Amino acid sequence: MSKEQQIDSLLHEERRFPPSAEFAAQAIGQASLYEQASDDREGFWATQSRELLHWHKPFTEVLDWSNPPFAKWFADGTLNVAYNCLDRHVAAGLGDRVALHFEGEPGDRRDITYAELTSEVKKAANLLSSLGLTQGDRVIIYMPLLPEAIIAMLAVARLGAIHSVVFGGFSAESLRARIDDAEAKMVITADGGNRKGSVFPLKAAVDQALADGKTSVEKVLVVQRGGNEVEWTSGRDLWWHEEMTPMSDDHRAEAFEAENPLFILYTSGTTGKPKGILHTSGGYLTQASFTHKNVFDLHPETDVYWCTADIGWITGHSYVVYGPLANGATQVIYEGTPDTPHPGRWWEIIEKYGVSIFYTAPTAIRTFMKLGREIPQKFDLSSLRVLGTVGEPINPEAWMWYREVIGGNTTPIVDTWWQTETGAIMISALPGVTSTKPGSAQVPIPGICVDVLTEDGQQVGPEAGGLLVITEPWPSMLRGIWRDPERFQETYWSMFGTRYFAGDGAHLDKDSDVWLLGRVDDVMNISGHRLSTMEIESALVAHPMTAEAAVVGAHDDTTGQAVVAFVILKSRFAGTLSDEEVSHQLRAWVGEQIGAIAKPKRVFVVAELPKTRSGKIMRRLLRDIAEGRDVGDTTTLMDASVIRTISDSVNE
Ligand code: WTA
Questions:
Q1: CB-based pocket (< 6 A), ligand 1
Q2: Whose C-alpha lies nearest to ligand 1, atom 13?
Q3: Can you tell me which atom of ligand 1 is nearest the CA of 528?
Q4: Nearest atom, ligand 1, residue 394 CA
Q5: How far apart are CA 496 and CA 498, in angstroms?
Q6: How far is the CA of 501 from the centre of ligand 1 (A)?
Q7: How many whole angstroms from 50 Cα to the centroid of ligand 1?
């Protein structure tokens, strides 16, 4: 099927799943939210913010958009983000409610109440400030999904400092780049974590990242988890448990301005260097908690919520840490992989804790689909009442499987579209209101305005496709790229002025529902993780063997896209190694340079790359080849025979 035919069949999806009358009646998010927001958008967000959060000093200004694209929300108010996630729940008598059901991969578990979590965060805040951390300082957190990682994030936030969580799967090189860009004062890590039944080292990567001693990092705090051997740099390295023991759990949360930076999260863009997306406090927390409550229909007294994302990604920030904790939710966090020690581990966890709201990525659903419904059917999943997906488009077949097999044919599914940059969910059904459609993220949430435009800025209208833009500023929008205002303006605001360009292609169907069709730039989406073609190409050409490299994201039935690389070897290496050996070495190299998630699935050694007359690599043709399609129009190619040679060598 051609791409156009695929889109066409999607847009003729006729199945509809309205909420049941019982669900609609008890739902937190009601249709009136849309009306309130369209009557007075800023007033709507102000009301939400006042109702959802504790403001130390109430704000009187809502939005300042006098200097676009630099927005300020609730700017004259002050609050403490950690206080909002912790102390106020304890003060409201909810201290005994479980905040975190932690399940370790080896099967160990800990239940941590709001009172206990508050006390740990206070101790950690005292520890960090005794080590000299103050407002505005940056801290890198490089950890497995452990309660201590969340404690560390909240302790940094409590002091008005800025965390930057680096996913534990990134290499020492990637870690170093982030430490340097953020000029971090401190790193919080673990000796190691559990993954697929063994311990993977983390502290070793920190040591390697800091090995040359030329660094802004003064202290490295190490949580004991893996029990693996670690090297120690005295004066710099400290054991978390030893330092925490003597700390007092008396700590007063100081209030900071609404626009005080909360975190930097690095994400892939179209150039080689990851960009540090900056989020601030009041607006971010407002939209994270609003969406968490309304999109997932959270009833905090009774629900058990589980989002499977790692805290190294934005989903982990907004829907493991800040949204759920601001809302006083009880949630599960799981350290390990879905298939350890058996492929039913996730379903076993749902049964064990009675999970009622479950949020994961389409890739995971497609993986389970392949393994067969017999596995989830062995477990009691009847506690589930809302299912969510995020990170990549979900094909209708996977959506239906999710609903039938995991949701027992009754649970609403919310397909949530958003980005690291948007901070919180932007397009999604409301489960008690929207009649859902398999495969479409559907409608902007109340208070959010989106549009689909042609490249020259014309609205496309129903039954047409174009570029997704967000037409009005929103509370949890990124406030910039860390120390790079030009790149911020250039990347998101140069296309359509004061409208934010998301980088995604989208289609509107006859009901004007939005269908997300993937990135229109050089960003790939592998298993819901963002990777840049340019970043991987830069890594590949940094290898002594490589002369040139081109990377494309090719369609993959399970992971959405897969990284496929085409490389030209330097002449003195050509023919010296077998193609398998080259592929092996280059994959390992990319793993070291960026991280295992960036390793190409396939590496093709080619003699030439298809280029236009002006010398640009034609990635579209490479993608056609990688996806086994006939290459279409090659008239702009400098030398059309190149493509035949490549496709012959790939077909071998
Ligand atoms: C893609 C993840 C289709 C999209 C929260 C976006 C989606 C990128 C969806 C952001 C969805 C996210 N349907 N595509 N429901 N959700 N995407 O920054 O291409 O890691 O631009 O944020 O993921 O990825 P990021």
A1: 267, 313-315, 390-393, 415-420, 441, 502-504, 516, 519, 525, 530
A2: 393
A3: 23
A4: 13
A5: 6
A6: 14
A7: 29
- Please report which confidence band the pLDDT of residue 638 belongs to, taking 50, 70 and 90 as the band edges: low
* CA–centroid distance, residue 144 to ligand 1 (Å): 23
Could you report how far apart the first and last alpha carbons of the chain are, in Å? 23
> What is the amino acid identity at position 564?
V
Return d(Cα 145, Cα 272) in angstroms, integer: 28
| CA of 629 relative to ligand 1 center, distance in Å | 26
Nearest Cα to 187, choosing from 215, 212, 160, 214? 215
Listed residue (251, 270, 203, 219) closest to 80, CA to CA: 251
> In this predicted model, what pLDDT tens digit does every residue of 19-47 receive, in sequence order?
999 999 999 999 999 999 999 999 999 99
Cα–Cα distance measured from residue 201 to residue 317, given in angstroms and rounded to the nearest whole number: 23
- The CA distances from residue 429 to 324, 390, 471, in Å, are 19, 12, 19
pLDDT the model gives residue 12: 87
With a CB cutoff of 8 Å and minimum separation 6, the contacts of 229 are none
> Looking at the DSSP assignment, which residues form a beta bridge with residue 238?
221
The number of residues making up the chain comes to: 652
How many A from CA of 502 to the centre of ligand 1? 10
Closest CA to 106 of 225, 236, 213, 275: 225
CA 456 centroid distance within chain = 30
DSSP conformation letters of 318-351? IIIIIHHHHTT-EEEEE-S-TTSSSTTHHHHHHH
Q: Is the pLDDT of residue 279 over 80?
A: yes
* From 360, 363, 417, 597, mutation site for ligand 1 pocket: most ligand atoms within 8 A of C-beta: 417
Per-residue pLDDT at 269: 81
The alpha carbon of 481 and the centre of ligand 1 are apart by a number of angstroms equal to: 18
Name the residue with the closest Cα to ligand 1, atom 22. Answer: 419
371 Ramachandran zone, left/alpha/beta (phi>0; psi -120 to 50): alpha
Q: Tell me how far the alpha carbon of residue 279 lies from the centroid of ligand 1, in angstroms.
A: 17
Largest CA distance in the chain: 74
Mean pLDDT score of the chain, rounded to an integer?
A: 95
Contact 438, 399 (CB under 8 A): yes
- The three-state secondary structure class of 393 is coil
Residue 313 CA, closest ligand 1 atom number = 20
Residue 609: Cβ within 10 Å count: 20
Cα–Cα distance, 30 to 297 (Å, whole number): 10
Query: Cα of 427 to ligand 1 centre, how many Å?
Result: 11
Q: By C-alpha distance, which of 253, 251, 255, 252 is closest to 56?
A: 255
Q: What is the 3-state secondary structure (H, E, C) of 123-185?
A: HHHHHHHHCCCCCCCEEEEECCCCHHHHHHHHHHHHCCCEEEECCCCECHHHHHHHHHHHCCC
Tokens of 443: 């409608």
Contacts (Cβ under 8 Å, ≥6 apart) of 440: 10, 13, 415, 509, 513, 514, 515
Question: pTM above the 0.90 mark?
Answer: yes
Q: 3-state class of 589 per DSSP?
A: helix
If you measure from the C-alpha of residue 424 to the centroid of ligand 1, how many angstroms do you get, rounded to a whole number? 11
The number of the ligand 1 atom at minimal distance from the alpha carbon of 529 is 20
Q: Which residue minimizes the CA distance to atom 23 of ligand 1?
A: 391
Task: Identify the residue whose C-alpha is closest to ligand 1 atom 14.
Answer: 392
User: Nearest Cα to 255, choosing from 158, 136, 134?
Assistant: 158
pLDDT, position 574: 86
